[in-house]
Amino acid sequence: MDFKKDFPIFQHRPQLIYLDNAATSQKPLVVLDAEKDYYERLNSNIHRSAHFLAEEATIAYEETRQTVADFIGTEKKHEIVFTRNATEGINLVARSYGDACLQESDEVLLSKMEHHSNIVPWLQLKERKGVNVRYLDIDENGQFVFDSSQITSKTKFVSLTGMSNILGSIPDLKPIIAAAHAKGAKILIDACQLAVHSPINVQELDADFLVFSAHKMYGPTGVGVLYGKEELLKKMPPFLGGGEMIQEVFEDRFTPNDIPQKFEAGTPNISGVVTFKAAIDYIGKIGFDKIRSIEQELTEYTLNKLSALPYLKLIGPKTTDNRSSVISFAMEGIHPHDIAEGLSQKNICIRAGHHCGQILMDTWGLPATARISLAFYNTKDDIEQAVHALEEVYKYFH
Ligand SMILES: Cc1ncc(COP(=O)(O)O)c(C=O)c1O
């Protein structure tokens, strides 16, 4: 099936081969239409005005909250907080939960393959509160090197990725979540990449917090989701102050609103949130079974093609086990930026750099990697053209 026809960018740019989906995905027409429709028919501020237009906009905004709650398997839609992106969700938790509940010399456990968004907020917490930040090692298949002794009575918070944006690996989180809870630690899952490729059920996972961004999921930029367990969100202080997050304001104090409004200060990205529903509905219509089977086949095809190039080294898992469609590699004697530049000249978009994962790069002694990240709308022809272009880049430099 030709899914590219759902995405207008491929009609506007017929030569485009887009293999940078882990950075952000393309947007289907249904999503573009939803945004236009919102501004043409509904545009109004939410939650505050009594008029009918505000009420309709509020209903549409809150419908997305319900859709997101269903999407990740919580029955409580007030456990869904809208943010600007996953990064803001992690910052919110580090600032609000971290500042209120963690003390000097408490420990925050991360891993060496976290995105900078899931490292820097914790290092900032270390600067503010003096907590210790420790990192789980990563094995060559992109799995956490973990045994339960790594979570001690000092460990108060664990924050880990559900899928690596560098290696494509999907680590087994369940034993870590169980071990964290056994010691009374809370756990946040950075599902920024995972949510694009796999169904998530926060209740089955028993995650305390979970974040992701709409823009990687065929939705608009400027919308993120923070899921948090009701009892935790309730006891956390507000992150940002302003309109909507308060019940009452006096000269010398304020009373915060209930969740989730307590964490949604100011006018949110209303059109973005409303539009995100169209993206989730689009994913739902295709279904994760189909998305996964297409992406697994494309991943296997890419791994086989890349493995056949003797001068190319795959970084991370070499098989399709416990992984999705993000594939990093290095080429003998050629900087990843030159690879990406060479492919760009042929209308092929891949990513090169440290992928906001400098700690893994430093640990593994890599200056950078080139990265192909596939979506279900990619085709084997896209991959063949990319592999052909890689061969040409190699020839050019040798
Ligand atoms: C694993 C992971 N976490 C967090 C982020 C940050 O996402 P955003 O920039 O949308 O906040 C990314 C973005 O690439 C990511 O891949």
If you had to describe this structure to a student in words, what would you say it looks like?
- There is one protein chain.
- The protein has 398 residues and is an alpha/beta fold.
- The protein has two domains: 128 residues, Aspartate Aminotransferase, domain 1 (Alpha-Beta Complex), CATH 3.90.1150; 255 residues, Type I PLP-dependent aspartate aminotransferase-like (Major domain) (Aspartate Aminotransferase, domain 2, 3-Layer(aba) Sandwich).
- The chain has an eight-stranded mixed β-sheet, with helices on both faces. A four-stranded antiparallel β-sheet has the order 12-13-16-15, covered by helices on one side.
- The protein starts with 8 loop residues before the first helix and ends with a helix.
- Pyridoxal-5'-phosphate binds next to helix 4.
Compact summary:
With 398 residues, the chain is α/β, with parallel strands linked by helices. The chain is built from 14 helices and 16 strands.
Ligands, ions, cofactors: pyridoxal-5'-phosphate
- In the CATH hierarchy, what is the architecture of the largest domain at level 2? 3-Layer(aba) Sandwich
pLDDT average, as an integer? 97
As for the CATH topology of the largest domain, it is Aspartate Aminotransferase, domain 2
Beta-strand portion reads: 15-25%
The residue fraction in helices comes out at 25-40%
Question: What order do the helices and strands come in, and which of them pair?
Answer:
Elements: H1 9-12, E1 17-18, H2 29-42, H3 52-72, E2 80-83, H4 86-101, E3 107-111, H5 120-129, E4 132-138, E5 144-145, E6 155-161, H6 174-182, E7 186-190, H7 194-197, H8 202-205, E8 209-213, E9 224-228, H9 230-235, E10 246-249, E11 254-256, H10 270-286, H11 288-307, E12 312-315, E13 326-331, H12 336-344, E14 348-349, E15 351-353, H13 358-363, E16 369-373, H14 380-397
Parallel strand pairs: 1-14, 3-4, 3-6, 6-7, 7-8
Antiparallel strand pairs: 2-9, 4-5, 8-9, 10-11, 12-13, 13-16, 15-16
Helix pairs in contact: 2-10, 3-10, 4-5, 11-14, 12-14
